[in-house]
């Protein structure tokens, strides 16, 4: 029996299948902390180093398990610190519940210490559901609604709990009278959410989740007549391009089957990187600024576009309007025909919809288009290899990812940060079946790689996890997350967690943007980063610390890190002058770049040489002589 409203909240969350909450304490939530203690082993409180990390962890928990991620923070400053991680979840459509404290009800409105208008503060990020609890009889339905709405809408919800209310006696069941709410628990598969989690008796407890096993997914499938109209468009096309996103991560077999049937190629939005393996010849890989040339060529040459579970934002990387007939599948009707004027807009779960579509699709006898795509893809991998092998000062960052790609352990989970790491992660890492990977897609914020990795490791302690980030992101919050890793790793069945930092002394992606987009030279004051001994810091924490400053040592360092008996901080000293070239450089970008370099950019000569090498490899298709 629950005794206080705090006990009731946690017990109700437990009934919903929640086993772990990421957070940080404070006097605004002391009632809840007491209840955690009373929950014992039934609920784990994961103390983060900063509330932003807790929110990133909750987001990653949702991304990697399909469950609702829950984070908790105290009133005022703690609640404010959560925001960036919550926006990351919101923009990537992840179900996350934030529970925050508030001043006592008797003090609210009194300009009290740490009193912030939290309902207004969270009104944007949690606009589907943000509520302040006022009396104990609300607690049951507030939890039920916050959990159900987060799952159903795949979004962020927020509960604000004044701290005096947290110690009040619980009302288990409101009286049967006017003005009360009588809610319950559970839901089956809905709009793109995993089936059954949280239904009484069928919740999937974290401890029993099998390594690599994603929960079964389900969701609505469009009506037969609409599927037929979509099939007609796809059957009529002779050059079909598929774009898969995060909403298609659970539809691997179906995407491959459709591509084979239609003789199509598959490009992947960043969040859909794990949707299909990269060793298939017709998978063109990433799209967009961090994309591949085969994706660019496929989009510019196709006559039909099938977009599945993606709201990839950059329309200039999709076919020009009018070139292709379009079919889109999305669980969220709001996302349809948003980036390209589609002809057929299907609301449905990607997997179920593709399954229903397959019997209506005809096998295309002419395989020329798919063969052309495969030729481009084969050539592109050679370009990437040649680019990775180019000399740089001291290490070419592409080589770091190229060598990792060859050594990726089965079933590993990859996390990445914003920065140039994202470009090499997108292009150079070949995903295989059974792996998972994510980064901050919609918000593209710095900071998530390390907290995502921690959450991944807590959810899947048997799987190797690899976090990839720049020195800027490391200095921003990654270093704090490492303290948590050092504190917890002995509890993991497989202690392998590699945190790889690109030490280039620069906020490099933005440096390139300053040159190529803005036409400005690198601005030293904003771009240079303080020196820091990352590997030594790792060792100081009791982790494995490896510093690599010669290309010949890269492969061995990965090997060592991936075999280690403890987490490793792998510091790669890389060259900031290697450009993360987009697959297509516009004349305007070229003019800006030239203008930037003419302003006596301190690295002008080095960047020009490195850029020329990249271009040369692109033109020569990777056949250029090794230097
Ligand atoms: C919170 C936040 N602040 C700023 C940015 C803008 N930004 C994007 S990438 C980047 C540079 C990242 O530098 P680093 O982590 O060192 O990686 P590098 O590009 O050097 O490899 C910056 C400043 C952002 N995306 N998020
Ligand atoms: Mg950097």
Quick structural gist:
Helix content is 38%, strand content 14%.
How would you describe what is shown here?
The protein is α/β, with parallel strands linked by helices and 627 residues long. It folds into three domains: 5-173, 3-Layer(aba) Sandwich (Rossmann fold); 224-375, Rossmann fold; 389-620, Thiamin diphosphate (ThDP)-binding fold, Pyr/PP domains (Rossmann fold), CATH 3.40.50.970. It is built from 21 helices and 18 strands. It has helices spanning 5-15, 30-39, 51-65, 77-91, 118-121, 139-153, 224-236, 252-262, 293-301, 350-357, 368-389, 397-407, 420-428, 449-459, 471-488, 508-516, 524-527, 534-540, 554-563, 587-598, 604-620; strands at residues 20-23, 44-47, 69-73, 96-102, 130-132, 156-162, 240-244, 265-268, 283-286, 304-308, 325-330, 344-347, 413-416, 436-438, 465-470, 497-503, 544-548, 568-573. It has a six-stranded parallel β-sheet, with helices on both faces. A six-stranded parallel β-sheet has the order 9-8-7-10-11-12, with helices on both faces. Helix 1 (5-15) packs across helix 2 (30-39), helix 1 packs parallel to helix 6 and helix 11 runs antiparallel to helix 21. The longest helix is centred in the middle third of the chain and has 22 residues, at 368-389. The radius of gyration is 25 Å and the shape is globular. The model is unreliable at 195-216 (pLDDT under 50). Magnesium ion is lined by residues 419, 470-472, 502, 504, 506-508.
Overall shape: it is globular
Share of helix, binned: 25-40%
Largest sheet: number of strands, sense, barrel closure: 6 strands, parallel
**The CATH class of the largest domain:** Alpha Beta
Strand order of the largest sheet: 2-1-3-4-6-5
Low-confidence stretches: 195-216
Number of helices in the DSSP assignment: 21
């Amino acid at each position: 029996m629950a005794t206080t409203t705090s006990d009731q909240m946690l017990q109700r969350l437990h009934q919903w299948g929640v086993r772990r909450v990421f957070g940080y304490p404070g006097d605004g939530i002391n009632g809840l902390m007491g209840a955690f203690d009373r929950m014992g082993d039934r609920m784990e409180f994961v103390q983060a180093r900063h509330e932003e990390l807790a929110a990133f962890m909750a987001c990653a928990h949702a991304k990697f398990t399909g469950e609702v991620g829950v984070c908790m923070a105290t009133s005022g400053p703690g609640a404010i610190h959560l925001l960036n991680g919550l926006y990351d979840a919101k923009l990537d459509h992840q179900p996350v519940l934030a529970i925050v404290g508030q001043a006592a009800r008797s003090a609210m409105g009194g300009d009290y210490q740490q009193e912030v208008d939290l309902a207004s503060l969270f009104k944007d990020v949690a606009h589907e559901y943000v509520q302040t609890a006022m009396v104990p009889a609300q607690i049951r339905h507030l939890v039920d609604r916050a959990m159900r709405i987060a799952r159903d809408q795949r979004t962020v919800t927020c509960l604000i709990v004044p701290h005096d209310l947290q110690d009040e006696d619980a009302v288990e069941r409101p009286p049967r009278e006017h003005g009360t709410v009588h809610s319950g628990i559970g839901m089956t598969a809905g709009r793109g959410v995993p089936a059954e989690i949280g239904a009484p008796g069928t919740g999937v407890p974290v401890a029993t989740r099998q390594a690599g096993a994603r929960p079964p997914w389900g969701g609505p499938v469009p009506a037969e007549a609409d599927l037929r109209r979509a099939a007609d468009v796809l059957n009529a096309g002779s050059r079909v391009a598929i774009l898969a996103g995060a909403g298609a991560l659970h539809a691997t077999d179906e995407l491959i089957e459709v591509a084979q049937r239609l003789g199509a190629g598959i490009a992947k939005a960043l969040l859909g990187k794990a949707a299909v393996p990269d060793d298939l010849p017709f998978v063109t890989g990433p799209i967009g600024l961090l994309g591949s040339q085969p994706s660019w060529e496929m989009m510019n040459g196709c006559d039909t576009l099938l977009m599945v579970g993606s709201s990839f934002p950059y329309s200039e990387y999709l076919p020009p309007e009018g070139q292709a007939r379009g079919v889109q599948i999305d669980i969220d009707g709001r996302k349809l025909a948003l980036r390209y004027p589609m002809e057929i807009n299907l609301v449905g779960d990607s997997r179920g919809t593709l399954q229903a579509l397959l019997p209506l699709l005809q096998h295309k006898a002419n395989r020329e288009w798919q063969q052309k795509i495969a030729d481009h893809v084969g050539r592109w991998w050679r370009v990437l290899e040649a680019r990775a092998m180019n000399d740089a000062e001291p290490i070419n960052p592409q080589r770091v990812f190229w060598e990792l790609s060859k050594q990726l352990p089965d079933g590993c989970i990859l996390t990445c940060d914003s920065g140039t790491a994202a470009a090499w992660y997108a292009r150079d890492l070949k995903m295989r079946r059974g792996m998972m990977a994510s980064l901050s897609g919609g918000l593209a914020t710095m900071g998530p790689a390390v907290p995502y990795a921690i959450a991944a490791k807590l959810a899947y302690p048997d799987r190797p996890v690899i976090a990839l980030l720049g020195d800027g992101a490391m200095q921003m919050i990654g270093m704090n997350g490492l303290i948590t890793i050092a504190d917890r790793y002995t509890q993991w069945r497989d202690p392998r967690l590699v945190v790889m930092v690109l030490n280039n002394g620069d906020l490099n992606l933005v440096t390139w943007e300053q040159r190529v987009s803005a036409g400005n030279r690198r601005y030293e004051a904003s771009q240079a980063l303080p020196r820091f001994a990352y590997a030594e810091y790792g060792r100081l924490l009791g982790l494995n610390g490896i510093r690599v400053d010669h290309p010949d040592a890269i492969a061995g360092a990965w090997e060592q890190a991936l075999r280690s008996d403890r987490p490793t901080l792998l510091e790669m000293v890389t060259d900031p002058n290697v450009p993360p070239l987009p697959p297509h450089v516009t004349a305007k970008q070229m003019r800006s770049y030239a203008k930037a370099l003419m302003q006596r950019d301190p690295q002008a000569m080095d960047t020009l040489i490195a850029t020329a090498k990249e271009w040369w490899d692109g033109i020569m298709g990777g056949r250029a002589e090794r230097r």
